[in-house]
Specification:
The structure is a single chain. The protein is mainly alpha-helical. The chain is 74% helix and 0% strand. The protein has ten helices and no strands. Helix 5 (113-148) runs antiparallel to helix 6 (159-183) and helix 7 (186-206) crosses helix 8.
């Protein structure tokens, strides 16, 4: 005869816990956007970019000729400090996990590292898009002030200039993130990002056999048509793509491979 034992009085039945949902890519991206301004370095870098851009427009209002105080002439120079400094933010976004020893916590909460990297890349791309909007806003303010103080205040601009500005800022910040992924060390990645393309550009000018390849691999040359008012030719687009493959896509792929395989301790 089979007997069953009645549960003891006061015994608590086992609870069935619902499975924990992994955070969505949107939530991870939101977290990474907050990280960009949570650190002292990232916050001051963004403040510095804003101040430098505002100073450039102010100096143009004071010293530029009235005829040169146009929306285009305010907008284009405002892209330069952002294009130089914003990639550093991309580097810090990637390398801070290792320099601040938060990688263990991050990758324990989200074991699939490629999702974290994707969220970081989306966050820096969104930041670069926001920087273009900020440049447009600052240029608009400068144009309004110029109109009120006797400057030209001309608003005419080719829409392709905005498209080119987006390409410039997005590729720049992704190049910085690529060097960060590849080197995983903030100082080394920052120095490598600024030094290696510069050295290659200098060698391309000094060494005759390198002048031909330099036309296709020197980003200071291949990205220059983005600042021109003339239409970009097919050959110029081709040179731009080749240089980005070398300085952005390859480091990004190699850095992702290294990040996925690196032991977290």
């Amino acid at each position: 005869m089979t007997t069953t034992t009645a549960p003891a009085a006061g015994a608590v039945a086992p609870r069935h816990h619902s499975p924990v949902r992994r955070p969505s890519l949107l939530r991870l991206t939101t977290v990474e956007l907050r990280k960009l301004v949570d650190t002292r370095a990232g916050r001051w870098l963004l403040i510095t970019i804003g101040l430098i851009t505002a100073v450039i427009v102010t100096l143009q209002l004071i010293y530029a000729k009235d005829a040169d105080q146009t929306f285009v002439n305010f907008f284009t120079p405002s892209l330069l400090p952002i294009g130089v400094l914003l990639p550093v933010l991309g580097i810090l976004s990637i390398t801070s996990e290792w320099s601040q020893r938060t990688a263990l916590t991050t990758y324990a909460l989200v074991p699939r590292r490629e999702r974290v990297v994707a969220a970081k890349l989306i966050a820096v791309v969104l930041t670069s898009l926001a920087s273009v909007l900020a440049s447009l806003a600052i240029a608009a303010i400068g144009t309004l002030v110029a109109s009120a103080t006797g400057g030209a205040g001309t608003w005419a601009m080719d829409a392709s200039l905005i498209f080119n500005a987006v390409i410039l800022q997005v590729t720049g910040v992704l190049m910085g993130a690529a060097f960060g992924l590849l080197l995983l060390n903030p100082p080394v990645a920052i120095v490598g990002y600024f030094l290696l393309p510069t050295v290659w550009g200098v060698l391309g000018e000094m060494v005759r056999p390198l002048r031909g390849p330099s036309e296709w691999l020197d980003t200071s040359k291949t990205m220059e048509p983005l600042f021109s008012s003339d239409a970009i030719t097919g050959e110029q687009w081709g040179r731009m793509v080749v240089s980005l493959l070398v300085w952005m896509v390859l480091p990004l792929a190699a850095g992702l491979f290294r990040t996925l395989r690196r032991e977290v301790s």
